[in-house]
Amino acid sequence: MTGHRVLIVDDEPQILRFLKPSLVAAGYEVVAAATGGEALKAAATRAPDVIVLDLGLPDMDGKDVIRELRTWCKTPILVLSARDREAEKIAALDLGADDYINKPFGIGELTARLRTALRHAAQASGEQSRFQSGALEIDVLAHSVTWAGVPLKLTPKEFYLLAVLVRNAGRVVTHRQILTAVWGPAHTEDLQYLRVFIGQLRQKLRTTSGAPEFILTEPGIGYRLAAE
To answer: What is the pLDDT of residue 167?
Structure first.
């Protein structure tokens, strides 16, 4: 039993009918809201541990809900989105959403994303600085990357890029967020530059380790560091 409280914000009754029994069976307490106004009130009064938010709400845009929440609330937000609204997903993530899931979706995928969001929130007070997957170990504070104890040689920019992904392990990070963090706000449109560095990082990890891909592409959105 998780004991965590999930706020589901969606105006489609069938979504709640689908989600509530499955989440309750998984040990979550479920609070529902059908509008943005109800969502903001519930977030303030019911103290959810995680929020699942549909962008298409009857009274206000879901992105405005995120914008308002992020002025006072650090609760992780998982966005529900239709597949043809890629630009809105990017905007939601840039506003402070933690992750997104496409409609239609399976309960297994949703609960996995919920666990990741809750885990990341638990680490937020002491920012994640270490990542380990198999023989790969990354220590941001120590500025080291090793495979089976053998150091990997990365340029400063490559390491800084990897550090951004480590601090958000398991979460999607948008192109704009990465470019701003690594190269500054003047370079938010330099996608080709980012792709070159991602390619270099992948090549070094793949050549040295021969392991599965660690840096996953979220097409049109950004990148995610695979978390065990």
So the answer is: 79
